[in-house]
Amino acid sequence: MKKVLSVFLCLTLLVSMVPLAFAQEEKTTLSIMYWDATDEKENDDFYWWVMHTYENWEKKDQVALEMLPQTGSSNDMFTKANLMMQSEETSPDIYMDDSFQAVADSAAGYLMDLSDVLAGWNSWNNGSFYEAAKSMVIGEDGGVYGIPFETDARGLWVNTQVLADAGLGAEWAPKSWEELLTGLRQIKAQLPDVIPIWYKPIANSEGTTVNNLLLFLMGTPDGLYDWEAGKWNVKSQGLLDTFTFYETTVKEGLTGTLSELVSSSTESYAYQYLRDGKLGMFVGGSWVAGSQFVKGASFEWEGYENALKFIPVPTQFGQDGGYVTVSGGYALTIPEKSDAKELAAEFLMAMMDDVEGLCHRTIRNGSLACRAINEAPNYNEYTSRPYVELATSFLEWTKYRPQIGAYSTVSSCLSTALEMVVTGTSPKDAMNDLARDVANAIGEENTQSLIE
Amino acid sequence: MKKQPVRKFVFLLPATLIIAVFFLIPALLCVAYSFTDLALTGSNAKQLTFVGLSNYAKMFADTKVLRAARNTVVFTLGSIAGQSILGFSIAYLLREKRVWVRRVVGSIVMIGWVMPEVVAATCMNSFFADRGTLNAGLNLIGIKGISWLFTYPMLTVILANIWRGTAFSMMNYQAALDDVDTSILESAMLDGCGEISSIFRIILPVLKKTVATNSMLITLSTLGCFGMIWILTGGGPGGKTNTMTVLMYVNAFQNSQLGYGVAISMALLVIGVVFGLLYTRMLGEGEKNEAQD
Question: CB–CB of A263/A269 below 8 Å?
Fold first, then answer.
């Protein structure tokens, strides 16, 4: 009896494996690596988009998808992806990369140049994409290494009630750093219990650099990168002034308690204080309201649409059009070592042409679309979101992070220098340390000083 | 007789192979990589270039490294002192106590140690946070709380590490204390030796080897400590708790400069070797003294 049973079991096993074997031979697998920070799995908006495209894709029957969600910090994902893309065995076929990191990854030879593919794609060439966004993922060699799908803008989230109570008026909009500081001082004078401004000053964080520091640094006459010389400006009056601006906010008590400001949950403090009317303004990205204050989010705030305003950061002296914003965003890329590049490219284009899926992702993620999506059935939901139109209008002054492979390293050093300034190092010392750190990391020949 | 060496070799082979594959080769590779510009991304990642001693030259010019080395030594010495003294005291006080007392106290002390580092660090974070358990407790008895992680970051990470590591010292000393001959203690007591002086004049000299071994083991685990610091302070504020391991991680995985990160880990290795030599010296001298006696 036992014998019969075991033979039977073996047979069942064998038989059940047959269709599996056949199925595997037929379908090509596309693996997709993407960032799902909070492990939402099937509820993730990117996942939804991929599945939406896949269900309606003509090649659905020939292709199977393997989803590779990455949880945790984006930095951990970059590290893992970089290691995976070094080998054919582990490389994903599609990788959702942050645009600034994609430039570095292209310099490393990890990503496929999509120029030829895109040349034959209607949507890329008929003006559907914002030209500025297209340039986000152009590598140092001029190749196009990814299709950007979402972008954003950065500015000041202000609590209009605080502005009104401080006597600045809800319509207050500073036109230079001096006006901004005057406003902050007035808030402090009129409302001693309210913190005038909050920003993220944490070391080794791209968020610190791009969501905060660059908004001020890019608004000085000296930029971060000198395109003509091909060098990073690691010492400049602009950098010194920027650091001094932050030093002033700390010294005059215009920002939060240092222990909270430099803690790992600095942003949570800001959101909470802003909602509770204890904070005047927060330097942050256009996605903040849509991801933090909406119903069901961590800092749910009823009526935030009326209490909260999004205003642009002024340039230092009001020069160059008066305002500055910095944009980033994610892009879809194809690793050089993928074994199904053609198919992956086809799927990418199908995803970008699936405007409904893209629109869904953009709405849920609180970002701005990189291409026209007005044909999407859910387009109304997109435009009816507060701040979308406003944030889109910011793109007029937008600056992108320098598309140079070394940017991520420079950014890390910049954020470290800012934390030093905020915790008491003098702007000058911080700048000297920064210059040395950057020179150390990317070579002194790639840096320059604009002042003595 | 002649077959003996061959047999020895055969028996040693599996262990040697495992050590070679999982330890020796990676360690040697690390040494090799520290002379290259190995990077995770960016143009340096395209091809590996030999850059000679430039990573090390960079390191000596980098004030952060010096500061991190100093922080590492402070962190390590603080942890050794705290864990040893506390561990020994608990073990000594629990000696000859009832079984259930030993069990209850022992288990409580062990909690920090059996938890994974990340969990322990998260617990410590909510304990020391501005609105954490510690400050709430202080407020209850009328003392105004302070922001531990910001005002005394180094002290706080050391305390957190002591909390986690004390159990290990306690167990070491408990085992060793059982070996101290009670008749010596009793006769010392009869000769009029007090409790404190019996600790310093009898127990500690007898436990000398345990002290050295225990310190050595704590040193090794503390030098490599990363999760606790990373979660509590991330090396901040303003680099005040930036140790060599944190610096290494930041350079290798956040700035993508693996070559430089590996070079820093080599410096960490040197610090470890110096400590190691000190302890072996200490043990060696102890043995010499015993031989002379």
Answer: yes
**Which residues lie closer than 8 Å to A396 by C-beta, 6 or more apart?**
A321
A258 vs B contacts (CB less than 8 Å): 150, 237
ipTM over 0.90: no
Let me know if residue B13 belongs to a domain. no
Contact A229, A446 (CB under 8 A): no
- Considering only residues 81 to 110 of chain B, which have any Cβ-Cβ distance to chain A shorter than 8 Å? none
**Cα–Cα–Cα angle for B22, B119, B163, nearest 5°?**
95
CATH fit for domain A29-145+330-366, picks 2.40.70.10, 3.90.700.10, 3.40.50.720, 3.40.190.10: 3.40.190.10
Structure tokens at A441: 């990391």
**Which residues in chain A show pLDDT less than 50?**
none
* Prediction pTM value: 0.85
**pLDDT reported for residue A149:** 93
CA distance B135 to B5: 65
Measured in degrees and rounded to the nearest 5, phi and psi for residue A327 equal: -120, 150
Q: How far is B245 from chain A (nearest CA, A)?
A: 15
Q: Would you say domain A154-326+403-449 falls under CATH 1.10.10.10?
A: no
Amino acid at B21: V
Count of structural domains within chain B:
1
| pLDDT at B1 exceeding the cut of 70 | no
Distance CA A351, CA A371 (A): 12
CB contact under 8 A, A420 and B238: yes
In residues, how long is chain A?
452
Q: Are B136 and B144 in contact (CB under 8 A)?
A: no
